[in-house]
């Protein structure tokens, strides 16, 4: 989807330069949540202020949200019909395979950044905390995010004191 | 109150879901199926199946649909608001700061450290989908559909929409 947005925003409408687009993409990547709403939201804001932002985001999300509600709404209304029930069962193994693909993909990316042993130990510890001890995943990830930022604070304080 | 719960259920996954768009899926499952029990594992899998077949980001499609199922149009609005607005405000408000630190090791580390946890939760979701499918479709059908889907997706690079459509047809004809 990003190349399509780039095509529209940089090449066709000329709202942004190439470099700026790359910067916005890099920043959107450092924030959590879907890229595909942050990019249009920011570009919309730049081009047309708050209204532009709202407009761009709605254009991205509304059509498919309405499609989901209509299709799944009809689907769950006739859930008792046996062949519709069967369709619902048929899709679960496919979703399982797709999720397996995603899990593998995330593990690979994490191996490239952290190495096998660190990745597996972190995944294992997280698994024990979340599934065995029943901790909320938000707590585990929140703690990790704080830990990722903390040493930088200590170091910048240390360098500040060293320069003083 | 239900609107506030919906807000929380989608705010938390979206604010901690570092490491790419799909990272939020297992986090949303933990809220929607695990914590609040708004949906069964089977229903969540159906939503995810259709969500994967349609274009545009999965996060907003799930938020809109789950919110609507739980509390109507207002619910959809609350869940979508929680998905889109907080990170958007963060992006607009802290742009200068983020721009300065976009290459800093700490910022990179945030998504790097979260990724193994998300991978673990995704694997957990695989296990839960497997047991759901085992309980409803049974082992032979589960293995058959999963193998066919894996071959289509990985070997032939078939678009997910067609794979989902194929599984719906198979399910309607054979499992119904």
Give me a quick take on this structure:
The complex is a heterodimer of chains A (164) and B (176). Chain A is mainly alpha-helical and 164 residues long. Chain A is 88% helix and 0% strand.
Please supply descriptive tags for the structure shown above.
heterodimer, A: 164 residues, mainly alpha, B: 176 residues, 8 helices
What does this protein look like?
The complex is a heterodimer of chains A (164) and B (176). Chain A is mostly helical and 164 residues long. Chain A has a domain at 1-77. Helices cover 88% and strands 0% of the residues of chain A. Chain A is built from six helices and no strands. Helices cover 84% and strands 0% of the residues of chain B. The radius of gyration of chain B is 18 Å and the shape is globular. In chain B, helix 1 (2-16) runs antiparallel to helix 2. The longest helix of chain B is centred in the middle third of the chain and has 36 residues, at 58-93. The model of chain B has no long low-confidence stretch (mean pLDDT 91). Chain B starts with a helix and ends with a helix. Chain B is an all-alpha fold. Chain B has two domains: 2-135, no CATH class; 137-176, no CATH class. Chain B contains eight helices and no strands. At the A-B interface, helix 2, helix 3, helix 4, helix 5 and helix 6 of A face helix 1, helix 2, helix 3, helix 4 and helix 5 of B.
